Amino acid sequence: MHGLMNIDYEAEVEDDMLPIFRKGEEFNFGEEFVLLITFSDSALGGPAEDALTSLQNLTKEFPSLIVQLSQGLNFHSNKKEFTHAVVIRFRSLEALKIFFGSSEYKSMWRSKFEPITKRALPIHFSVNPVGTEIM
């Protein structure tokens, strides 16, 4: 038997529809990466937000690899197993591997996330539409 986990997080996403439409088909395929994080209590606020901002800024340096990023604080008051969530849509599995293998990412993770992270649960899965009919 398995338990269910609920993460409700407030995220900033692109609010301008034009860039999303320009990406078009790129949203239909790719590799979805989900990272659930528990930051130490002392890191909530300043250091945690600084780490997330650093990740967001780094993803902007890799537009050929990343379609979209959203991240934010878990505001589900009675389920605080994880304090934050990050969702990144990569263009492909290879793009995910290149990003996480980069020296820039490794350095940012070591300096910003490792010192304040109590727990991290990374998950990724392929996004490939089945069939050609629009529902």
Automatic annotation (TrEMBL):
<protein>
    <recommendedName>
        <fullName>Stress-response A/B barrel domain-containing protein</fullName>
    </recommendedName>
</protein>
<dbReference type="InterPro" id="IPR013097">
    <property type="entry name" value="Dabb"/>
</dbReference>
<dbReference type="InterPro" id="IPR011008">
    <property type="entry name" value="Dimeric_a/b-barrel"/>
</dbReference>
<feature type="domain" description="Stress-response A/B barrel">
    <location>
        <begin position="31"/>
        <end position="125"/>
    </location>
</feature>
<dbReference type="InterPro" id="IPR044662">
    <property type="entry name" value="HS1/DABB1-like"/>
</dbReference>
<dbReference type="Pfam" id="PF07876">
    <property type="entry name" value="Dabb"/>
</dbReference>
<comment type="subunit">
    <text>Homodimer.</text>
</comment>
